[in-house]
Fold:
Amino acid sequence: MRIGFYICHCGINIANTVDIEEVMKFASQLDGVVVAKDYRYMCSDPGQDLIEEDIKSLNLTRVVVAACSPRMHESTFRAACEEAGLNPYLFQMANIREMVSWTTDDKEAGTEKAKRLVAAAIRRVVLHEPLEARRESVAQAVLVVGGGIAGIEASLRLADSGKKVYLVEREPSIGGHMAQLDKTFPTLDCSACILTPKMVEVGSHENIELLAYSEVKDVSGHVGDFRIKITKKPGYVNASKCVGCGVCTEKCPVKVPSEFDMGLGVRKAIYVPFPQAVPLLYTIDRDSCWYFQKGTCRICERFCDVGAVDFDQKEEIIEIQVGAIIVATGYDVFDASKITPLGYGHLDNVITSLEFERIINSSGPSGGEISLKDGTAPTSVAILHCVGSRDENWNRYCSRVCCMYSMKFAHLVRERIPEAKIYELYIDIRAAGKGYEEFYNRVLDEDVTFIRGRGAQVTRLATNSEEEGKLVVVCEDTLLGIPRRIPVDMVILSVGLEPQKDAAGVARMFKLSCSDEGFFLEKHPKLAPVATATPGLYLAGACQGPKDIPDVVAHASAAAAEAMAMLDRGYVVLEPEKAVISEETCSGCRICLDLCPFDAINFDEEQNIAVVEEVGCDGCGVCVSACPSSAIVLRGYTDEEILAEVEGVLA
Amino acid sequence: MEATQVAMKEFEPKIVGFFCKWCAYQGADLAGTSRMKYPLNVLPIRVMCTGRIDPTYVLTAFAEGADGVLIAGCHLGDCHYETGNYKALRRFALVRRLLEQYGIEPERIRLEWISSSEGSKFAKVVTEMTEEIKKLGPSPLKEVA
Structure:
């Protein structure tokens, strides 16, 4: 056994709280160590060269590097070993940065702990066996989950490069939240005008298979070969026959609140969510349709000239195989009724920002007319920032878009009602973005009153004649240092962005991690903002955290580029850490069969032994620790290797 | 009395930590990346899943001189391998009872769910556990030896 030991200073990151010299001396005296060296940055080219040269000139059979987390540079050093002709799995890393030097100011204790981890790594590496990573081909298709602007953008980028895309959207139409918005800040582009061409492109693209009104039900497999089960919900209208004429909707007698219009308008039981919907396919909502609820009606069927209505349509399960997955499930808005003092849900004319987007929209329920419940136009409007954001009680984070859309609202109100009094109640104005500060200055010049202070309460209780019949916004003006009461006709609550209500379930299905707030966790906050801990699984858009449209588009394009690069390379390297059952020792008890979460263990009736199907095995090792005959070995994590570490850290 | 107090003060327990690769180990990394300071008594060993942890690892750790064992993995329902942590949970109950029969206090072994974003929870758990074991003193198995 000829072990080479290398320790990294990481500049001062490790060297400040770990005595490099001493650890090196300690390691050089351990069994099997023939060389111990240090370098300022082991991961740099010269650092790697050091290892490679030693492997060749000193005939090293094992390498240990004490440096950062294996999550950072294990692959770097494995590659260096391979470069020098040593099997990359005859390498072990000791994590003395994240686990030691960064967690202490006590150099003596840090040095001691570093020695323990080094001893463990050296004892372990002795037992390592050469392993071979397998290469597998990559299915040339990508699943995109969610048809908002993020999913649309990612799908188009991939499809344009010739990749097959399956875009799954659970609503009857793609478009997401962006389709609901009126104008977009700071340029005031009409949201629908810039979005709908992209939606149409998705609908007609030869490489995109759009699965609307569908949901992903099951995900299995691994990078390069994911197996997906998708449920296509019955919309009771035959897509190949429906011409989108809309006669069915016209004749349908059922009226229910429109989800697209935030419940402010009505839709029919057979409907398209909005006129520019893609696919332009009418859908029957089973929960409100009289035929499904009461057993009679079928008017739509009678009036459909092309016979597209099909009440016998059944749920369909679609199974696909893809090489990569992009999760673009978007966000939800904060439920303003949770903050009772702000009056949402029990005071008239207190509305949320998303409701205002529909109200101000010329194709919205009021035709773009800003009006109060009694039909008159408001003479004064207060816009309350940070509702549910930057608030210890709700969400501590900043939702990033509210300042800008709130100021957009002020501008739009000014445009429609020139004489209105407009108040913006803010904590800080966050206008960081191209053209954003300029937009803020523009709104400042439009006679909008900015009050620095969070809206604390909205009440109808008047204390003077001026407040009579008004909504009174109570706040503290933190610039003047006084409490204020502002009587207005309309209050808009700028609600923050939250993870989708079912984000935890989605995370479970795709095996994603979530951040504390519940948004999906990227692999690295700076250097891998679209990748995740699971290879082949990427994030796009606001499901990863609040973002405005330009950032979502950039994020989605990045996700598409990563997926594309993986597909174009054509193969993936699958880690060799898999369970192997010894034919001689297996007693055929079958305990492992039920334990395997991936059903990757089969039973060979003839030989009366269990056999691991290598492709299905994900290397968790649950079977290994349950086997009463110790017949199963997890390559790379054998009992002996783990116990050697236990002995090493305690030696 | 005074002498034992001094001895107790100097006692630095050795705690073996078994952390799953997907959640707890990443959470521990995050604590480091966030420069959270915590006692250095927990000695981390990376495993694929808490379900990989054989009860004999815990016994071996105590036999080799550990004063405590910390097992940490993904939150229930969040296991990268779906149900590995449930298996760990069941084995944990068993191994804890087993340890009691060896005269090892149940406080010396701890099972925690720490996600990859819970660096602060990791630091808190390690700090708490170190304090607790400092109070308990060295493992009774050491005295026997």
Remarks:
- Chain B touches chain A through 50 residues (CB under 8 Å).
- The domain at 12-140 of chain B is CATH 3.40.50.960 (Rossmann fold).
- The beta strands of chain B are 15-20, 42-47, 68-73, 109-113.
